[in-house]
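Practice problem: predict the structure.
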Amino acid sequence: MSEDTDGNTVLTYHLLSYCSALARAAKAVGTYSSPRGGTERTGSRRSHKETAQRSLRGIKRGQRKPLEPSDEFKHLHTQAIGAFVDAEFEMAEQLTLQAILVNPEMYAAHSLLAEIHLARKDQDKALTALFNGAHTRPRNTQVWTDLAELLLDRAHGEDDSPVSDALYCYSRVIQIEPHNIHARRQRAELNRRLGYNGRAAAEYESLLRTLPHDLAILRSLAEIYTDLEDPQRAIEQYNASIMFYRSKEPERAQTFAWSDVNIYVELFADQQRYNEGIRALKSLSRWLLGRPDDPVWKAFDQDDREFDLDHYPRRVEVEGFYVDSHEDKSYGKGLPIELHIKLGLFRLRSSAQGISEAMVSSLKKE
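Answer:
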């Protein structure tokens, strides 16, 4: 399915296949017991063409009075339940399809049909039944959410159709509840999963306006904008949030993690801005290690001795540095190994002069 495919295409496909099943069932059964006694031809109630047209017209939006099932529906549905309980799944399926022919707007019949298919180990047909049944409760967000989760449980391999259908379901939830955060997160993630990076970015940007400085959203945006070859956009988003978190109390700032530092500085590497990446790495590391305003190292940029593992021999040579001014772990010993490596790589790539510093850092870490 292409990025521009409309959700109605998904709905139409399922309705057409469903109507085909209904038509086959009506032809196969031919007659059924009437609650008024005797038998009746299914065609005397409604032709298959009329049934298909009725289904494809869909269900009107907005508030509607609850629909009451007809006596025929009640009778057929009761018979279908009895057959299902007796494990007569073929008969149960045919009776349920007959009930749907009579009252296609009754969710209970679609749900029963799904249970029958599940009992026969046919999860794909069960999902199709639930998908069509969901349209009988178009304003029920829980039905759409449950269906989306079931579809995602079935998503595997290279088949993207369950993911596309789940995306459609979450879009229906958002139509009903525009501020449903869970549905909006899921829709963004599914767009990303299907390769619709433009849509995913727009969705996450919208979510970020609702949930400012949400780090999970920022991480997703960093990935997307990297793929879109626009890492600067992600840097700008991170910059605003870094300012926000650095203005808060330490316990609030703890939500900004080392993984965020790694993601953030890698955005500079994507643009080959290694010196800026080094400065950002040091500044954020200093902050997370409890030395956000250390004047000695804020003014020192000749090399990376600030994050040597030991004070000796290089760190003690810097004017203004005192061994007991901060804990040992607030320097190189507290910096995660992957950031030690990244610091060396950035030095190596920044310039010819950076090679010697990268080598020093590498030897020290061995």
